[in-house]
Amino acid sequence: MPCEVASRFVVLYGSQRGQAQAIAEEIGEQAAQRGLEADLSCLSEKEKYDLEKETAPVVFVVSTTGDGEPPDTAVPFVRRIKKKTLRRERFARLCYALLALGDTNYANFCNCGKTIDKRLQELGGKRFYATGHADDAVGLELVVDSWIEGLWDAVRKALSEMAAAGPAVGSQQDNSAVILQETAEPSGLGLKLRHLNLSEPDAEASEQPILRSGKEKDVPGNAAVDASLTKSLPPLSESSLKVPALPPPYLSVCLGDEVNSVPPLKENQHEVQISRAVPLTRHDSVKAALLIELDVSDKDLPLQPGGVFDVLCPNNGSEVEELLQRLKLGQRRDHCVLLELLKDTRKKGAQLPAHIPEESTLQYVITWCLELRSVPKKALLRSLVECTTSGFEKRRLQELCSTQGSADYNRFIRDPNICLLDLLRAFPSCTPPLSLLIEHLPKLQSRSYSAASSKLRHPGRLHFVFNIVESPACPERPVARRGLCTGWLADLVAPVLQPYGGGPAPAESSGDAALPKIYISLRPPGTFHLPADPALPLIMVGPGTGVAPFIGFLQHREKEREQMPGATFGESWLFFGCRHKDRDFLFREDLEKFVVNGTLTHLKVCFSRDNSEGPGSSPKYVHHSLQLHSKEIISLLLEQNGCFYVCGDAKNMAKDVNEALIELFRTELQVDKLEAMKKIATLREEKRYLQDIWS
């Protein structure tokens, strides 16, 4: 008799901001629709799985954070499997597939997924399906959707092979088979997908064909000359659609009595007072930068210069009010939100959202718990279809979440950063219940900032710097808006903001009550800090607000030089850039003083808008400036074991600096590009090429 093929497989995820978890849950839900059972767990829940003994296929979904680091939930797992004492065949029974999430704006693309994949292979694990690498720079769904589509045949084949071979033998599928091929375009951001042996999945289980009726074909009013968020053009407007299956609801939400309580702070959260706020740019600068000083004199915060901390920020007040009114719950804002799991839910592993505290008011939940500005996922769009009464609006939402509408989804939702409120404004007949929003909106994330001061220079104080992010209006989002956290902070400090360029500070006669307070929490110590040996040279690259952590570095070095007059200190180079010398040269006076007193050996500044083009002109950007000092940089890094730091924009600056460094190594060492890249990779491995970058 043929052996009975099991239907169970394991899904493990490592997630920092919820993306990997959401994808893992989507795999679990699609599995159930296909008659498969996905055993879903977080990698941090080590008591729920045992890879050494696992007899079912295992699917990993892992993200990468920071400078190629594992997400917090995956750190212990990665440490365990990287132990050199593990025997080579530890995972000989393991049959697995892996989906890695990353962002090509950062140097170590999908590094966590690649690390896990490589180590599992070294320890005897066997792939039953080719690894996918999804790029958030162009849209995770470009790889994720196709990867999941091909997963089901691979899972069934692996289950069948494992059942036939017995519990001690894993799948023997060729590990070199490629199912998704990722090819970098010249920009480094493009992706091409090549599909091999992907049979069509069960359409009835995973997707629902939507046929356009003749009645819906003619849109009222004048014919649209171009597609938009709310209108499509042929062929999409006339196509049959494949839309995702409706995500199963899993929460029962009701409002209880009025309550007055505010959830207590978590153990690692601190309430701190803003003691000073200073503009760093002139009023006519393209970007407005602020320095904020926090009073942490009563806190024991082990934060080094360059260390990272999080600011807990609320959603925008007017957006919260607009959503409350749209939900028709404005009069019940002070009522307690009561959550329960639906007893008959079909959602696999459904849990109450941990980011919503008990006894929270509706106002608190919408203000502090849900990321209202997040770009809606297709699963949310699919659910909104069911809450929409207009046939035209319903059809357009179906298009935007469909396979055929992926280009429109990217163009009108993902690329312009459309949020839930933008959708509700564009589709007025859509009236979602509160439960749907709590199910689909991710946790409101805190925003990270680098310490721009040293405790040696400013005891009891903590500085940080930021640009006020401005997002202009666009057709999909007709209302301009500011960054969630930076806009909130700017409004918060406006009454106490000091004048640009000095001048008298605001009167303090009103007392401390006039100074606002915020909540912060510390992140685990990273590698972006001064070397323990002060004799090692520093090369710092930080245009714009990227200079912030280096101000802390230099303050620290200055004080160390005063306290240790006999010590040897290595050279320090700073490559800084901005648009205009007289408008946005941040910390100009401080930097010039560091040069005068010897703390900063070399200050190289470039102004991208002040310089004329042509031979003999000054360098325009920091990577141009680096190329002018190639011999010195090579000597500092290779002969004196110096450290190379980069802070700022990941999308352009950090890539340009990395390319300049490769060319610098290639030219000065007379080697080819591959060898130059190996030299730079060694610097990264030795933690001497460090980045604090953002997109």
UniProtKB/TrEMBL annotation:
- Keywords for this protein: Amino-acid biosynthesis, FAD, Flavoprotein, FMN, Methionine biosynthesis, NADP, Oxidoreductase, S-adenosyl-L-methionine
Q: What is its EC number?
A: 1.16.1.8
Q: Origin, by domain of life? A: Eukaryota
Q: Which GO terms describe its cellular component?
A: cytosol
What are its GO biological-process terms?
homocysteine metabolic process; methionine biosynthetic process
Extract the InterPro entries matched here.
CysJ-like_FAD-binding (IPR003097), FAD-bd_FR_type (IPR017927), Flavdoxin-like (IPR001094), Flavodoxin/NO_synth (IPR008254), Flavoprot_Pyr_Nucl_cyt_Rdtase (IPR001709), Flavoprotein-like_sf (IPR029039), FNR_nucleotide-bd (IPR039261), NADPH_Cyt_P450_Rdtase_alpha (IPR023173)
Q: Where is the Flavodoxin-like domain?
A: 9-152
- What GO annotations for molecular function exist for this entry? [methionine synthase] reductase (NADPH) activity; flavin adenine dinucleotide binding; FMN binding
From the UniProt entry, list the residue stretches annotated as the region Disordered: 202-221
Q: Where is the FAD-binding FR-type domain?
A: 267-531
CDD domains documented for this protein: methionine_synthase_red
Cofactor entry? FAD; FMN
Main EC class the enzyme belongs to: oxidoreductase
What the entry lists under Gene3D superfamilies is as follows: 3.40.50.360, NADPH-cytochrome p450 Reductase, Chain A, domain 3, Nucleotide-binding domain of ferredoxin-NADP reductase (FNR) module, Translation factors
Query: Which Pfam family is one of those matched by this entry?
Result: Flavodoxin_1
Protein name, UniProt field: Methionine synthase reductase
Q: Which organism is it from?
A: Denticeps clupeoides
